[in-house]
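ok new one. same drill as before - structure tokens go in, u give me an amino acid for every spot. 415 of them this time. try not to just spam alanines like last time pls lmao
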């Protein structure tokens, strides 16, 4: 009998298992993958996410893998853009883009070192319930093809956007916003591009240096362009960069060499799922999934995974009823992520909303607000704080923005 079983051992599941094991709980974490294992995801981690790795004693271990630090970011849409970087966030002064083969294996190792049992190549097929309706374990198929039941006081689904645990406990989705885009990405040698996120005419690319001297290049387009794009992805990929930044398109042709196949994905929808119930919780993409455009998935998995682990500790240690503790986690996640979710959904349309266009125009005139903007991107302040009318009024004053151009948020959204 385990205290907790965690299904899924990547950015959300491995840290939850590690933190619980560090508290001394008997923890099992299972994944159908075997690590090191890649997954279809790019891999920028913001300062707020790196701060969690630092708190857990894992940031230096990540640095030692040779992943290059990034201390400059450039965002643009059409001719409007911002360049800069955030203030330190919890002492973190850079971001990293580590390969998931490296990051996820490091997290799994840390969970194992903490004392969690890690079972790889183990596919969960069902959640077990006691007669009073509480989740009390999992039914899973192990590498040898045998079916096993594992029992626990609590089950955590950290098994991604298509979560089996969510389906078996009947966790309904809410706040769903249909996905708009698709992505192709790969790894290139010969380039020295830093972090860039460039959009023009509903075409976008992003770049970031990663392990082994390679640059990760990602191209995003709206779904209506998918059929045409995939007919010749190499041509379509180059065409986006040529269109958005012709000088970088020329550099890619002259010096860039693709070292790995393209990975492609049409995103699932943006959604929240009810993430707590009797004996179970959902964390990471299983409970809260959004377009990868703002690159918040890994950071959020760390931040909210830690909050879930803290609340589980509260419940398991007897400091409070466990289901109420876990409900608090879900409420906190929903409250804290609402602004970031709205911003992500608004940007995923690849068209700059008028409010953001007004703000970006003003930011170039106010270095203090520009740093604050990047601090929001890095997770050091919320989008509600940044887009607060008082903060925007100060920005517009500092920039000398004419009254007619001083747009303010209409309600909670960024429109
Ligand atoms: C194209 C793309 C680009 C992205 N870029 C970024 C980025 O730059 N930065 C960022 O922060 N985020 C990015 N994201 C989002 C990020 O990938 C996710 O938010 C993050 O991986 C969520 O972690 P997770 O642990 O919740 O789920 P996942 O990473 O999906 O892991 C779930 C795990 O559960 C396991 N599993 C699933 N079902 C079962 C089962 N039945 N039995 C056993 N195991 C199971 C899987 O094998 C998997 O290992 C991107 C996503 C995509 C698609």
């Amino acid at each position: 009998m385990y205290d907790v079983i965690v299904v899924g051992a990547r950015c959300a599941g491995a840290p939850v298992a590690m933190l619980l094991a560090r508290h001394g709980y008997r923890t099992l974490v299972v994944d159908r993958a075997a690590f090191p294992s890649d997954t279809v995801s790019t891999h920028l981690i913001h300062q707020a996410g790196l701060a969690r790795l630092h708190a857990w004693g894992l940031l230096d271990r990540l640095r030692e893998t040779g992943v290059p630090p990034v201390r400059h970011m450039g965002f643009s849409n059409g001719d409007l853009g911002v360049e800069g970087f955030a203030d330190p966030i919890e002492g973190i002064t850079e971001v990293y883009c580590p390969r998931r083969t490296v990051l996820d294996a490091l997290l799994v190792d840390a969970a194992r070192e903490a004392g969690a049992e890690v079972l790889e190549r183990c596919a969960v097929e069902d959640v077990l319930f006691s007669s009073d309706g509480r989740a009390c374990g999992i039914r899973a198929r192990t590498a040898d093809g045998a079916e096993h039941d594992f029992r626990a006081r609590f089950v955590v689904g950290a098994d991604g956007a298509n979560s089996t645990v969510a389906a078996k406990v009947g966790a309904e989705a809410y706040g769903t916003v249909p996905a708009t885009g698709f992505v192709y990405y790969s790894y290139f040698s010969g380039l020295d591009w830093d972090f860039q996120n460039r959009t023009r005419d509903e075409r976008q690319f992003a770049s970031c240096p990663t392990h082994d001297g390679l640059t990760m290049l990602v191209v995003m387009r709206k779904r209506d362009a998918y059929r045409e794009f995939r007919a010749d992805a190499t041509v379509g990929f180059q065409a986006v960069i040529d269109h958005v930044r012709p000088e970088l398109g020329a550099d890619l042709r002259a010096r860039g060499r693709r070292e790995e196949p393209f990975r492609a994905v049409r995103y699932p929808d943006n959604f929240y799922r009810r993430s707590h119930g009797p004996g179970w919780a959902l964390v990471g993409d299983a409970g809260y999934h959004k377009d990868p455009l703002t690159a918040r998935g890994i950071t959020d998995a760390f931040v909210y995974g830690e909050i879930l682990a803290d609340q589980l500790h509260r419940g398991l240690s007897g400091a409070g009823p466990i289901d109420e503790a876990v409900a608090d986690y879900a409420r906190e996640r929903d409250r804290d992520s609402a602004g970031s979710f709205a911003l992500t959904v608004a940007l995923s349309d690849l068209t700059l909303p008028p409010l953001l266009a007004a703000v970006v125009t003003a930011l170039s005139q106010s270095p203090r607000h520009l740093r604050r903007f990047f601090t929001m991107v890095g997770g050091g302040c919320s989008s509600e704080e940044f887009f607060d009318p008082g903060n925007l009024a100060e920005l517009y004053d500092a920039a000398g923005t004419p009254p007619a151009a001083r747009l303010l948020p209409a309600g909670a959204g960024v429109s």
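The mean pLDDT is 96. and btw Residues 7-13, 30-33, 39-44, 123-124, 158-160, 164, 183, 265, 284-286, 292, 295-299, 301 surround flavin-adenine dinucleotide (CB under 6 Å).
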